[in-house]
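Ligand-bound model needed. calcium ion.
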Amino acid sequence: MESNLRRALVQNEFILHYQPLVNLETGLIIGVEALIRWLHPELGVIMPDRFIHVAEETGLINPIGDWVLCEACRQAQAWCDEGLPPVFMAVNVAPVQFRQSGFIEVVAGALATSGLEPGRLELELTERTVMHDADINMGTLSALHRMGVELSLDDFGTGYSSLAYLKRFPVGKLKIDRSFVNDLETDPDDWAIASTIVSMGRSLRMTVLAEGVEKPEQLTLLRKMGCDMAQGYLFSRPVSAEGMADMLRRQPFV
Ligand code: C2E
Ligand code: CA
Ligand code: CA
Ligand code: CA
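Prediction:
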């Protein structure tokens, strides 16, 4: 697997798909999340859950993650240059990648090369990434924030977050993990967790996004809670860059 991943990197076998992030007030796509896929010459499409952990264990996540950042920024700016409605680009950052020395320079480089405004890039970090050595990470988070890059907490609710740190960290968005949204309409506990996250996020003046929205009933409940944004198969599965551009083209300008 490791040598296959190395070859994949050299031979450009990775691609990014994009999934819309929807503003629940306007119904418009205001952001997209970049999601990696591996187009294996013999095995076909390999999903990230099957190779990201190997990439993390071998350290290959650093060059792979750097490629993702550059490619996602390039694509966001290319859409902008085509005159498509402006969206922000959300990029997943693995814990190892976040902690590598020079990560800030990698982000700065991706922005400079692509010409993308820093405010149009959002880095998705998990609670585990951020809370591990919270004091050390604070420095990196602050530096990214000073650059103008947006930060969000991914899979929120599955890790552990110290509420004190949540307040201190320059994180602007909470992404409610899919596991709390799956049975939102039938499980009162999931409903309670989701609505608690929404009200906490609001109190801390953060944007709250619900992941994995598949059913209209879930969307209705999330709207009632005051959730700001949503993502899920109800709107669209992750699609190719061309597919995403078509979706944006069909969307009215704000
Ligand atoms: P994630 O960051 O939580 O990304 C969301 C995942 O949920 C994506 O799976 C997406 O396709 C899936 N999803 C979105 N809406 C729905 C829905 O309505 N129902 C269901 N059942 N699933 C939905 P994907 O693309 O397979 O990615 C899986 C994970 O792999 C991601 O979870 C993320 O942790 C990781 N990953 C993906 N791309 C990258 C990357 O470029 N870098 C790093 N470090 N990790 C990545
Ligand atoms: Ca994510
Ligand atoms: Ca997530
Ligand atoms: Ca997840």
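The beta strands are 14-23, 29-40, 44-46, 88-92, 121-126, 150-156, 173-176, 207-210, 229-230.
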